[in-house]
Design brief:
alpha/beta, Lyase, Ornithine Decarboxylase, Chain A, domain 1, eight-stranded mixed sheet, 2 domains, binds pyridoxal-5'-phosphate
Length: 364
């Protein structure tokens, strides 16, 4: 028997979240962002659950090849374009759309003898100062690639669509972008999840949702998406593998971070930081525990003591019927991944992407 830990990926939740994107951006087409193995959910699950998307956006041309091998005939966007010049022929064979964000990529494309048209999403740095051509250089880059026969489109990325009163604002980036592309042909791609949720004036012809497709929050706070009708796609489950009876003052685990305030039962759960659970989770981070016999009815119990490599420990005072073998949800429907992330000073993005290869994945 394997360790009892399991990440279940619910493809109907993917479909549900994709439908939510369509409701929020009905005029736009959707690039479903599935970089980082679909934010840790696996390409397999994304291909099934997001089959009705208009296109997939990812990073590596090898992953684009995987999608083609597994039957995906729709659009694929390489979000950071080429990493090396010699990838171009394969990109063309795979009929990928390409982001072009810098002069080196532009020169590679000019040198390449494209035998069929390639769609280019030219990326503008409208204020985030990560990737992209500054507005002043953008039009020249656009005209050069257009002259070289590429089908040209426009793209930018927002730095603060999840924040209020933070510069550069969505409004300021949008203004820069619109001014720079004025009079140029081609579709536009602007919005990430935060802009889809909160800046409906900044969507563009193609939206690029990532985190919301997985049912987590762009801000890192579950409260911010609580009413957005998104569903958690990943459910991370394990089981109680041992129970300790502590007396008042007994300490738990490495460093003895937690001292029992009273006599209490502690559940030892088969999940640790080598599974991707954050080592920095504070005492009080919630897990959901099946409180036995009562038709799977569960309760929330707090983590107590430091998370170790393969195990974590929970206070079972809320779960008097829990026993060895009781199911524990680390995150999913009952415990938002964002809550675990918040208690560990990070965001749901990081936790989802960091689920370790040793955790078995089941696609439902
Ligand atoms: C260029 C680009 N577009 C879209 C996304 C999706 O962002 P989010 O997951 O916040 O929706 C990302 C992710 O970081 C990105 O880098």
């Amino acid at each position: 028997m394997n360790r009892p830990i399991l990440a279940s990926i619910h493809t109907e939740a993917f479909q549900h979240n994709l439908n939510r994107v369509r409701e929020l951006a009905p005029e736009s087409k959707i690039w479903s962002v599935i970089k980082a193995r679909a934010y840790g959910h696996s390409f397999d699950a994304a291909l099934t659950g997001l089959a009705s998307t208009d296109g997939f956006a990812l990073l590596d041309v090898q992953d684009a090849a995987w999608l083609r091998e597994h039957g995906w005939k729709g659009r694929i966007l390489l979000l950071e374009g080429l990493f090396h010049e010699n990838e171009l022929a394969l990109v063309q064979d795979l009929a990928c759309d390409l982001v072009v964000h810098c002069d080196a990529q532009l020169e590679w494309l000019e040198r390449f003898n494209a035998h069929k048209p390639v769609n280019v999403f030219l990326k503008m740095n409208s204020g985030m100062n990560r990737l992209g051509f500054k507005p002043i250089a953008y039009r020249t880059a656009f005209h050069r690639l257009h002259a070289a026969g590429y089908h040209m489109h426009h793209m930018t990325h927002f730095a603060n669509a999840d924040q209020v009163d933070q510069q550069p604002s969505v409004g300021s980036q949008l203004e820069v972008f619109n001014e720079a592309i004025e009079g140029l042909d081609g579709s536009t791609s602007l919005a990430n999840s935060a802009a889809i949720l909160w800046h409906r004036n900044a969507l563009g012809d193609w939206v690029r949702p990532g985190i919301m497709l997985y049912g987590a929050s762009p801000t890192g706070l579950y409260a911010d998406i609580e009413h957005a009708h998104l569903r958690a796609v990943m459910q991370l489950h394990s089981e109680i593998i041992d129970i300790q009876e502590l007396q008042e003052g007994d300490r738990i685990g490495y460093g003895g971070r937690y001292a029992a305030p009273t006599s209490m039962r502690i559940g030892v759960v088969a999940c640790g930081y080598a599974d991707g659970y954050p080592r920095h989770a504070k005492d009080g981070t919630p897990v959901w525990v099946n409180n036995a016999s009562k038709n799977g009815e569960g309760v929330i119990c707090p983590i107590v003591g430091r998370v170790s490599m393969d195990m974590l420990t929970i206070d079972l005072r809320n779960a008097p019927f829990a026993h060895i073998g009781s199911v524990v949800e680390l995150w999913g429907d009952q415990v938002p991944v964002d809550t675990v992330a918040q208690m560990s000073d990070t965001v749901g993005y990081e936790l989802l992407c960091a689920v370790a290869p040793r955790v078995p994945v089941e696609i439902k």
